[in-house]
Vitamin K epoxide reductase domain-containing protein
Amino acid sequence: MNKNTKTLLLILSFIGVIISGYLTYVHYAGAELGYCHFNDTFDCDKVNKSIYAEFLGLPVALFGFLMYLVLFIYSFFLLGKLKLKLPADHLFYIRLLTGVGVLFTLYLISIEAFVLKAWCIFCLIHSVLIFIIFTLLMIERKAA
């Protein structure tokens, strides 16, 4: 993996940590994202307060936060900023993690589109982030 890809992975995962961390905080604080209500179609509160905002009793945003945190820390290892010997198959596990993230994101997108009929801007940004990260990792797989 070249240095530009590693740096991009670091930046994208950092953005993901910030967004999902904020949404996790909002969930536990019981706060509303009133500024994110544009109309009936784009309404973060409708999405984030629905029954689909939790999975296994935990906020969906927390799962995103943990995934992005793992990717963020992993990026530091790739860039050589943290010293630890990674197992030989480390990329397989990172691709698996992001692949599960993509599948879960597709599930959440379908819920927003067909069940809630409302979109959360933060969720859409998360969707774009995970698809870009997954694509980067798959392109690197073909290049290797």
User: Anything to note?
Assistant: The chain has a mean pLDDT of 91.
